[in-house]
Sequence to fold (156 residues):
Amino acid sequence: MKLLKDETAVSISVGFILTFVISVIALVTVLTSFYTLMDRAEQTVMRSEFEIHGNDISMQIASIDSLVAVMNNSGARIGVMEYELSLPDQIAGEHYSVSVVNSSHEIMLQSRDKAETKVMIPYSTNNIAVMESTIFSEAGRHYMTYDPVQRSLEIR
Fold:
């Protein structure tokens, strides 16, 4: 009977439970915001890397287009040209795809798992047509090939 009416340790127990619950909620909130921050930083890195590689591809397309124009103006015969693209297998630990979109004259780089990392880089040509194609980073080596018969460039 004496134990049922003893209320001397109630405030200590309630205080401990409240402190524990508040500490757990604060820890979960901090960890969740940390992971959200890291995910945003990863997306920013991916977009930056996609812009760098997309601009490199766009520059190579423009270079091949200029080379074809110079060769045609000088009367030279052009054979098949092939340029190896130097693309990493992964960016920020993710595989990605590179697509040529003819309707908008853009190169689209996008991560497979994250749609918010999509980057569109414009390209311009005057003398050649660029074929629509999609390549995947994990496929190995990638090439830009110019076909003089069809006056077209394909990324494969």
